Amino acid sequence: MGRADGIGAGPAPTDPHLREMSQPPAIVWFRNDLRLSDHAALHAALEGGGAVVPVFILDDAAAGAWAPGGASRWWLHHSLAALDHALRAIGGGLVLRRGDSVAILTELVRETGAREVFTGGTTEPWARRLDVAACDALSAVKVTLHRMRTMMLFQPEQIRTKAGGSFSVYTPFAAACRAAGDPRQPLPAPTALPPVSLPRSDRLADWCLLPTKPDWASKFSALWSPGEAGARVRLDVFLRDGFEGYAEQRDIPSVPGTSMLSPHLHFGELSAAQLWHALGTLPPGKDRDRFVGELLWREFSIHLLWRHPEMPEQPLRPEFASMPWREDASALRAWQRGRTGIPIVDAGMRQLWQTGWMHNRVRMIVASLLVKHLLIPWQVGEAWFWDTLVDADLANNAANWQWVAGSGADAAPYFRVFNPVLQGRKFDASGDYVRRFVPELARLDAAHIHAPWEAPDAALTRAGVRLGETYPRPIVDLAGGRSRALDAYAAIKTAS
Description:
The chain is mainly alpha-helical. It has helices at residues 18-21, 40-47, 60-63, 70-89, 101-112, 125-140, 170-179, 220-223, 228-242, 246-249, 262-266, 272-279, 286-307, 329-337, 343-355, 360-373, 378-388, 394-405, 420-427, 432-437, 457-463, 478-495, and strands at 26-30, 52-58, 95-98, 116-119, 144-147. α6 links the parallel β4 (116-119) and β5.
């Protein structure tokens, strides 16, 4: 990552007259597809035979509330540095601009003489609106915008019900995807780019995407390697060392039983098609079936957002609009900081804060506590995850929070309330996950670590635990919180 601050320090060292001597270059507008391999937009631009101008635009105003959160900005900084390094290795470089995407693209067209812009596009509602605006503006100056969807396995119009509609239930959606056959084969990465004089670029360091003081991301680099090369290493290690036993191990948070590829997929450092075909090289069985199922759940979330752009803000089941949610700033703060007094929840929230990631099983447990036991709106939890997850993805984040809240498509029934103590005892039976992230309970025995308030005084004393002092008492009575949640749900059912 040493070259990160050098991005935009100057154009690639090429003859400044080359652009004028050849056909106009094409602009490749990178977005959530920060890779060179299997990049349909880059591939199509190069097929034209001319040079390309790779561009990334940071447009926080267009994204509004869904501009990248703090953890995502950390990842974005390093991923852009990696992409620039990869482009320079084949004779190019990455142009960075910050501001209004439409105005910047129009400006770049004027600066470079480009007559075509190629982009992978994204599925977020704000990005789709931006596509339309960019297409109109570029058409007005006789420039063509080529949009190629590079995020999905299958295009929305490809996966339809027998009646021609869209799916709202995961199981038949996944069956339709499997029946559609393998997605397209991944495209190779270019080995060289035609020479071109690149226009002015911002300096990545000037974007201030990294935290300053306090550096809450100080531990991220030990766990993550953003960029296409890092994604490939993560995938290779998982397929070699972590895939066998995936179906069972993925639910155990104390072991490395998941792929941890989600941030690489979100930023497009690895395409879903590449992952699909990599899985196809493995022997069939429950491990592969389970992983493909998880990949198709991601696809389902993307398709839901495509059909329901209101999903990040509004419940898909309208009766939940009248849910009697509570405001409880103190409880929310305790949940955010991992100080609820419920060990498996606190371990998950501290893992999130320290690493920018949380184990999938634990995500469901902490989300259930927030929206059910505490009766705090799912949108509040969604916003916290958006700011703190390196893999924060609008479709996945919204769909999964609505699934836990019971308000989404194919959601878990609202009356399914996770008991965090039972969940901890089932999936962290040894207590090792809690001990890792809640060290004040490290000496407590496995029989009591998931409910220290039930431990006898002697066990607490031996472990050096003083409830209410070294570790908080629970902020909610689990039985009472469950009853309150079910009463609230009964009220909206009666009203509807």
